Amino acid sequence: MIPERVFNWAVWGGLLAFALLAEALGETYWLTLAARAAIFAIAGVGLNLALGNGGLISFGHAAFFGVGGYAVGILATHAQTYTPLFGLIEGTQSMPVTWSVAIVAGALAALVIGALSLRTSGAYFIMITLAFGQMFYYFAVTWSAYGGEDGMSIYVRGGFPGLNTLDPLHFFGLSFAVLTLVLLLVRMIDRSPFGLALNAVRQSPARVETVGISPRRLRLAAFVVSGAITALAGALFADLNRYVSPAMFSWTISGEIMIFVILGGVARLMGPVVGALVFVALEELLGGLSDYWHIWLGVLLLLIVLFARGGITGALTREARRG
Amino acid sequence: MTTKSILTALALSVAATGAALADAHSNGAKIGMISTLSGGGAGLGVDVRDGFLLAIEQSGRDDIEVIVEDDQRKPDVAVRLADRMIQSDEVDILTGIIFSNLAMAVVPSAVQQGKFYLSPNAGPSALAGRGCHENYFNVAWQNDNVHEAAGAHANALGYENTFVMAPNYPAGIDAINGYKRTFEGEPAQEVLTKLGQTDYASEIAQIRASGADSVFFFLPGGMGIAFLKQYADSGVDIPLVGPAFSFDQTIVGAVGEAALGVPNTAQWSPDLDNEANVAFVAAFREKYGRIPSMYASQGFDTANLILSALDKAPVSEAEAFRAALREADFASTRGDFRFNTNHHPIQDYYVREVVEKDGELINQITGTALTDHADAYAAECEM
Amino acid sequence: MTLLLIEQLLNGLQLGVMLFLMAAGLTLVFGVMGLINLAHGSLYMVGAFAAAWVAAQTGSYLLALVASLAAAAAAGVLIETLILRRLYARDHLDQVLATFALILIFSEGTRAVFGSFPLYLTIPPPLSGPVTLPGGIEYPLFRLVLIGAGLAVALGLWLLITRTRVGIRIQAGAADREMVSALGVDISRLYTLVFALGAALAGLSGALVGTLQSVEVGMGEPVLITAFVVIVIGGIGSVQGALVGAILVGLTQTLGAFLLPLASTRLTGAPDAGQVLASMLIYILMALVLIVRPQGLMGRPA
């Protein structure tokens, strides 16, 4: 048993060390995998803010993941074809710009979905967010202007000033830096009055209401930040794959983001990071075992839910769950 | 070991002759196959894989390694697998993708990185015209082709106003465009259905009310099963015509008698009478215990195309290898087969009908829809 | 046009009653045990596969339907006693994840057993073909049978819940779990029973819909999500709400897919906008219901 703080640093350093090792050994694919894990981790950290801190079990975060991806895809398409968006806005492939658009779009989507969904709670909230995610999915599939089900290919990955994003090490570094920033942001939120109030709302909404704070507005704020972070992950994912499609909106993506969080440990800062790392590793290792490897993934998930509450982080660290 | 490597073993009996042939066959290759092997669309991927591996096995080559992976029909998984095969396994050739949207995710970046991609099934229009590439070869058809054949057959049957129906997604739009390109009559009505829709009561009611003299539909997989069963039960007797995708061996068993007697168009059929095909159908049945589908024949042809090119040049000499692929110097199960300037097939398209034979439902050729047919996008391709 | 509209109304009704069979189980299980069961769609698939297999072996459609009920109920009892009962006291998050894992196991397990190709299941000859309704509408007999079967099940369920001892216990269990077990009712047997009932209904609807559509792996998930929309609209835990919600969703979906593209063609010259809207319509309906009544049409206020 190790203290969670030490564990957190070990995970962070471990991912970085893995990538540097991959670079040293010339294993480009490991770098790609590390970037994929880092991006999934960002999406998980985003969901964790709503799920762990806010107690909002969203089964529709694929909506924000997809919105982020489509922001990048749409801007890139217009840049590739030199046709301005709405005849006004030039397309672009500059990451700082596309990411900003993704974040804003994700926040807006979360504001609308959140405002409606937060009228309910518990099981309703789960099913409603799931249904909204599907609504985005069907919209994207029928939206033929941007490729419909075929999605959009981004022929050249977006650029970032001072970096060669086509170099796998640079792209991993970028994803890792974003992950680190997002983790710092979440830790800051955690310790801020807002974070404390959010925790209090999760435990006892009535008590918070008596001191004059609206639980719903607090939750909505958390949901919006959560959606924005997940949209940022979607933007990076689009750049990683150089491709976006309605599959980013599918409900299995929502399920997977949720798996990162639970696998790693709900409401723990590094929980989603651990979960994403383990998921990417499993996908890689189990995928080759048999045609029916999903059965084993399912069994493993079941065992974790039944016997390892608190996820991997909970099992390996001795500190009690926050909050 | 994470990858499922299938090293084709050289049978001992071949060893004696193998030594003599070794010089001519000295060009090995590493082939990455990404296909849909789990979930609802798995039947198609399984058939492409089995057909492909059968050809490799028959070649008796031990210097060809095929790495097979399951894309789960998820574009991001397909991209990850392609990254691994290119960056880590260092394959020379990629192949195997079933669905157009996955092909669009993988192919552009793979060919940009200098790999060869041979498509055993998907043929999106985006990759046939302006988006064509010298390292991309389509060994199946351009998506529109099979529908163009259906349009031609509708003319032959004297249809004048067809009710046209396909799911609302790019391959569906390709289908409608393809049909209308060759069809000389007027479409009575065009209906786009929801992708994955399995209840066609509403569309069938519209067909009944449309006054059309024929119905063209493109509904692959479960969508087609559902439509054909419901249409047969509806009592509407406007004749159907469609591409092979709703009548192929992978699903015809599930459609049952509702599939009987409907003309469907394809570039291949199990009863196609040429030496390569007769041998292929027999060998496939022998090895896997089922009738091969169109997808299996495409996988088989793709492998044989690669083998024929390897006999002439190693993959490392990209120019020569590409030229060897372009020659398409292999015995196709479809009979005549050659490549157009955009590396898409020029081939015949047949009209088939499902019949019951020895207790099994199977397709049989009833005629030819189009001869030496090329796709409509080749002119836009600058290679 | 009027005839076409009436036919579409019937289609919507038929979709609605089949959705009800799915939604009834989901909502009962939630109401009584507080469990969100994503694997409900897998039970639907199990029912369809069992029916297709038995029909192929015996040639009897009736036996196939019995098999769908039995197989889905058996699968339900199996997962309830082995896994799900450990989750009743857990939060919804654990339930969602565990039942998500069950979907993976069921889907690929089914494929491992039955192979990768869809199965054959078709309408039995006595029920096939169209009948002529008053007004001259030609309508498939089997769809009328589905409407009838769905409404009969709804009636049966209502009688079971309101008129039998088990039903009263189910109602009591939904209202106050601890009270019921304090009264000496074997609550875990009651839970298994409720779960098996819900599973059997899902299995039956899988077999009936599979007969009309197709029997393949992955058939359960789209229906599951629509069933969620149904019970959110109707009010989670309320069987009457599930019926109202199911018929509302069935009609909205069918009429939307029919009328919106026509309207959009008339207004804009192209059906595209109508199609995009039609594919999102039931979710918009759900959002509207939530704005007016967050607890659903027949749900109890939280």
UniProtKB/TrEMBL annotation, chain A:
Keywords: Cell membrane, Membrane, Transmembrane, Transmembrane helix
Matching InterPro entries: ABC_transp_permease, LivM-like
Regions crossing the membrane: 34-51, 58-77, 97-116, 123-146, 166-186, 220-237, 257-280, 292-312
GO molecular function, one term: branched-chain amino acid transmembrane transporter activity
Subcellular location: Cell membrane
Cellular component aspect of the GO annotation: plasma membrane
CDD domains in UniProt: TM_PBP1_LivM_like
Keyword Nuclease (UniProt): no
Membrane-related topology note: Multi-pass membrane protein
Protein name (Swiss-Prot/TrEMBL): Leucine/isoleucine/valine transporter permease subunit
Lineage: Bacteria, Pseudomonadati, Pseudomonadota, Alphaproteobacteria, Rhodobacterales
UniProtKB/TrEMBL annotation, chain B:
Domain of life according to the entry: Bacteria
Family matches, as CDD domains: PBP1_Nba-like
Keywords for this protein: Amino-acid transport, Signal, Transport
GO terms of biological process kind: amino acid transport
Keyword NADP assigned: no
Signal peptide (residue range): 1-22
InterPro entries membership: BCAA_transport, Leu-bd, Peripla_BP_I
One Pfam family linked to the record: Peripla_BP_6
Residue span(s) of domain Leucine-binding protein: 30-357
SUPFAM superfamilies: Periplasmic binding protein-like I (SSF53822)
Transmembrane regions: none
Recorded family membership: Belongs to the leucine-binding protein family.
Record-given protein name: BraC protein
Native organism: Jannaschia aquimarina
This protein's encoding gene: braC
From TrEMBL, chain C:
One GO MF term: transmembrane transporter activity
Ranges annotated as spanning the membrane: 12-31, 38-56, 62-84, 96-121, 141-161, 190-212, 218-236, 243-263, 275-292
A Pfam family of this chain: BPD_transp_2
Chief place of localization: membrane
Membrane topology label: Multi-pass membrane protein
Keyword Metal-binding attributed: no
Keyword DNA damage: no
InterPro entries: ABC_transp_permease, BCAA_transport_permease
Keywords attached to this entry: Amino-acid transport, Cell membrane, Membrane, Transmembrane, Transmembrane helix, Transport
CDD domains tied to this protein: TM_PBP1_LivH_like
Swiss-Prot/TrEMBL GO biological process terms: amino acid transport
Location within or outside the cell: Cell membrane
Top-rank lineage group of the source organism: Bacteria
A cellular component term, taken from the record's GO annotations: plasma membrane
Protein family: Belongs to the binding-protein-dependent transport system permease family. LivHM subfamily.
Protein name: LivH_3 protein
Organism, as annotated: Jannaschia aquimarina
